[in-house]
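Retro notes (design track)

What went well: tokenization of the new backbones is finally stable.
What didn't: we kept losing track of which sequence belonged to which structure.
Fix going forward: every design gets posted as structure first, then sequence, in one message. First example under the new rule, 429 residues:
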């Protein structure tokens, strides 16, 4: 398989061209012939014009790449090595939503041929590839795994907004259903990943490795969030505590904050779901999720307390929120906890203005029923810096005083600012 792909006698197809799939497809297209598939034809039209709908990649990233973009499933019949990188979310009950994953698997199954490879990159719980996706491939294609086609899993390791660590510079975990598939899959990825590959002993190990990466981060941040709540009651600056504790060589430097997005705030629920199926209800993981999911409500309540302390009526207050994407310098608003914070403030009848230079106003309106304001005005009773976009990092005390009313409040959720003017009530997590 590897030699045929290198010689462009066979083709790689990447299904799902979002934050993960598009960079992956373009990276492979440097060395292989690639078909980039997405069900959203409008996104495909943008990519054909060398435009990334996610605003992560510039036009130059599309140049000199052997890639065909399509939304027609029939075009996938020309491929032999399929990579599925569609999103895996949770529903309103915090239960894994495998709809897009199974749909993409169904599409591949209908064009699957003897000798083909299917590799999943979507984040799932251990066992999902073989227990949920493989039966779909078998039943629709009529082919048998290992004998007729090969199965693999290579968890995505894209870090949106990170220009220092592109896909090719991040070590890639690979796995396969047997030794032959593991060898071929590792050679395919290793051909474009400069950092190399790590061969996991099984597909389940690779799945588990991915899901605990983000579960670990979730738990570490939840600890810091809980400490921030405790230290706030004690009148201690959490950032100063972390700075002091970091002088010990083995202290892990995590900071409190809003945990959203399509990874850290979602992946632990996949492990929770599978664990409960096994008859065990995790205590630590579930506790961490409760703490992190509860932060927007706690921050909103804390701001209301600060407003009252400054003789400001919350129901008549005007508050500016800077940023609504799930992290700095990206356009992705999925699972934004800032939106939860805004809704919590609105429940207190606070008038909230939201500004974000990266987010799409239409997407924010559709997803959260919130309206982004075109520009920052003045007369704000409080300003919440919720996302550390580069556009916000240069603000200083004079700027905040200029846009604020008397007795201004600045809630710095990202700890961006030091030496803030004493006229400003400064609060940070």
């Amino acid at each position: 398989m590897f030699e045929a792909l290198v010689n462009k006698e066979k083709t790689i197809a990447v299904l799902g061209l979002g934050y993960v799939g598009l960079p992956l497809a373009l990276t492979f297209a440097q060395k292989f012939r690639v078909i980039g598939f997405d069900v959203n034809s409008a996104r495909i039209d943008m990519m054909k014009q060398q435009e990334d709908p996610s605003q992560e990649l510039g036009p130059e990233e599309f140049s000199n790449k052997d890639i065909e973009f399509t939304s027609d499933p029939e075009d996938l019949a020309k491929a032999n090595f399929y990579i599925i990188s569609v999103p895996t979310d949770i529903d309103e009950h915090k239960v894994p939503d495998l709809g897009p994953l199974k749909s993409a698997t169904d599409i591949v199954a209908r064009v699957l041929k003897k000798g083909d490879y299917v590799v999943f990159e979507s984040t799932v719980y251990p066992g999902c590839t073989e227990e949920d996706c493989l039966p779909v491939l078998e039943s629709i294609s009529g082919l048998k795994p290992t004998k007729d086609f090969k199965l693999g899993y290579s968890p995505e390791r894209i870090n949106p907004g990170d220009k220092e660590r592109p896909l090719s510079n991040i070590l890639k975990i690979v796995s396969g259903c047997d030794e032959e598939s593991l060898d071929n899959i590792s050679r395919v990825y290793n051909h474009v990943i400069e950092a190399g590959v790590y061969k996991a002993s099984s597909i389940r190990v690779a799945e588990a490795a991915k899901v605990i990466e983000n579960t670990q981060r979730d738990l570490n941040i939840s600890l810091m969030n809980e400490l921030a709540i405790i230290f706030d009651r004690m009148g201690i600056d959490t950032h100063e505590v972390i700075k002091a504790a970091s002088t010990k060589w083995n202290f892990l430097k995590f900071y409190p904050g809003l945990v959203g997005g399509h990874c850290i705030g979602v992946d632990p629920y996949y492990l929770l779901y599978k664990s409960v199926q096994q008859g065990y209800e995790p205590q630590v993981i579930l506790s961490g999720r409760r703490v992190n999911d509860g932060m927007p409500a706690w921050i909103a309540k804390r701001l209301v307390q600060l407003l009252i302390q400054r003789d400001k009526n919350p129901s008549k207050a005007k508050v500016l929120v800077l940023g609504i994407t799930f992290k700095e310098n990206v356009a992705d608003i999925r699972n934004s906890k800032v939106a939860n914070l805004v809704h919590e403030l609105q429940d207190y009848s606070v008038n909230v203005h939201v500004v974000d230079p990266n987010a799409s106003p239409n997407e924010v309106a559709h997803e959260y029923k919130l309206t982004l304001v075109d520009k920052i005005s003045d007369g704000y009773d409080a300003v919440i810096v919720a996302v550390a976009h580069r556009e916000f990092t240069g603000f200083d005390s004079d700027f905040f005083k200029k846009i604020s009313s008397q007795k201004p409040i600045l809630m710095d959720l990202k700890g961006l600012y030091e030496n803030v003017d004493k006229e400003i009530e400064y609060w940070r997590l």
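Added context from the reviewer: Residues 415 and 428 are 6 Å apart (CA to CA).
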